Amino acid sequence: MSADEDISLEEKRVYAGGSARPAFVATDAGLARVSVSGDLVGEFGLAVRESATDVATADGRVVAATDEVRQLTDDGSQALGFAGANVVGFADGIVAAGDGRLARYDDEAWTTLAEIEGATAIGDGIVATESGVVGFGGESRGLDSVRDVTGEYAATADGLYRGPDWEQIREGSFRAVATYESRLLAVTDSGSLLDHDDGEWRDLDAPGAVADAALTADGIYAITTDGTFLADAGDGWRSRVLGLPGAHRLAVPTARTE
């Protein structure tokens, strides 16, 4: 699969110069890999052709929750097992949750860490669930109806919260949250994208209903629910239709590929 419009000569020079980074989108059609550089959105294709509900990346590794947990390799993907996992993450290794449990992958096997129901996202040492934030040992960490966690922030059905004491910093219903250094992005249930920087909130007026978003040093990236990839490096949105509806999660490495 390639982009539905030709990449310009300027864009080709950018990618040839090694400044591109991959972005990964979990969709109903599979796990998509999209080449981006600043706000230039280049070629894309399916890295995994099974429906994907979540994707995470860290230290050059990428894992996705598909028919089982899969890790991308240089020539495709490696099946790691754990059928039934619907969310994945990295915390001292690969972790995944689903089918009533949280587990870590080590030595080619999954070790159960805790019995957890209704997992919706994995953070650093915590899991977002339909009934609240839960620690990796299964202990309750508060809140309710949590849709996403990252760093010290949690997106819930009744607001955006900052831990560890879960102070509400924004009212409303949120589906996703992303951070980079001191900057914060939040996605509302209606698909609006909010930016919090230097103590101020602003609506980024994204062209479409946003499913998930990511921040890097280069700019803001987002995926809409109908599969349009968005990028803004400071001069407004640029977009590319991927033709992959049912987008769920977006992961963008903070470091470029060389």
TrEMBL record:
One Pfam family cited in the UniProt record for this chain: Beta-prop_HVO_0234
Residue ranges constituting the HVO-0234-like beta-propeller domain according to the UniProt record: 8-252
Name recorded for this polypeptide: HVO-0234-like beta-propeller domain-containing protein
Source species of the chain: Halosegnis rubeus
